[in-house]
């Protein structure tokens, strides 16, 4: 099994490589979800300026998650694992980091969203201890487009 030690990406970092990782990991969503992912607007500079914390595994980077405090929960955004590095514990390790950070910050839960269409993600998050908490719609849609999952810490 590969090393799954996570570290915080800060300061001078290869943000372009991190963006490329996220794009590779999310490539399978293209044509499957509507509306298109916010990934289409994400830039390396935007990741570098993320107001929360960015955690990664590997060098070169193999996995990442962007953490943001939202009220009493820690939101996990852009949880991504390189396609050729999946099923090696990377997502589980990053969720473990998020749990530790949430506890340290006095927060009550982790939260993330995935699209309604990505049922394989729903199953993976349930396996990792998350439960469905809500379904929401993007502006202009008359059907649910996203599923919020939550995990107490």
Descriptive labels:
7 strands; alpha+beta
Give an overview of the whole structure.
The protein is of the alpha+beta class and 153 residues long. 27% of the residues lie in helices and 31% in strands. The protein has helices at residues 15-26, 44-48, 90-104, 119-127; strands at 6-8, 53-58, 61-70, 73-81, 109-115, 131-136, 146-152. Strands 1-2-3-4-5-7-6 form a 7-stranded mixed sheet. The longest helix is centred in the middle third of the chain and has 15 residues, at 90-104. It is globular, with a radius of gyration of 15 Å.
The overall strand count is 7
Radius of gyration computed on alpha carbons: 15 Å
Distance between the termini: 27 Å
Largest sheet: 7 strands, mixed
- Helix percentage: 25-40%
Low-confidence stretches: none
How much of the polypeptide forms β-strand, as a percent range? 25-35%
What is the residue-mean pLDDT, rounded to a whole number?
95
- Write out the strand line-up for the largest beta sheet, numbering strands in chain order: 1-2-3-4-5-7-6
Number of helices: 4
User: What series of H and E elements makes up the topology?
Assistant: EHHEEEHEHEE
Helix/strand/pairing category: alpha+beta
- Silhouette: globular
What's the arrangement of secondary structure elements?
Blueprint: E1 6-8, H1 15-26, H2 44-48, E2 53-58, E3 61-70, E4 73-81, H3 90-104, E5 109-115, H4 119-127, E6 131-136, E7 146-152
Parallel strand pairs: 4-5
Antiparallel strand pairs: 1-2, 2-3, 3-4, 5-7, 6-7
């Amino acid at each position: 099994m590969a090393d799954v030690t996570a570290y915080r990406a800060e300061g001078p970092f290869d943000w372009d490589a991190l963006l490329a990782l996220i794009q590779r990991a999310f490539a399978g969503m293209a044509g499957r979800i509507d509306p298109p992912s916010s990934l289409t607007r994400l830039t390396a500079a935007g990741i570098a300026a993320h107001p929360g914390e960015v955690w990664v595994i590997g060098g070169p980077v193999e996995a990442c998650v962007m953490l943001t405090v939202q009220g009493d929960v820690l939101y996990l955004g852009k949880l991504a694992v390189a396609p050729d590095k999946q099923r090696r514990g990377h997502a589980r390790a990053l969720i473990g980091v998020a749990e530790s950070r949430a506890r340290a910050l006095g927060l009550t839960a982790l939260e993330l969203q995935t699209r309604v269409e990505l049922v394989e993600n729903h199953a993976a998050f349930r396996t990792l201890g998350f439960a469905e908490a809500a379904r929401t719609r993007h502006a202009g849609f008359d059907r649910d487009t996203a599923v919020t999952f939550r995990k107490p810490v």
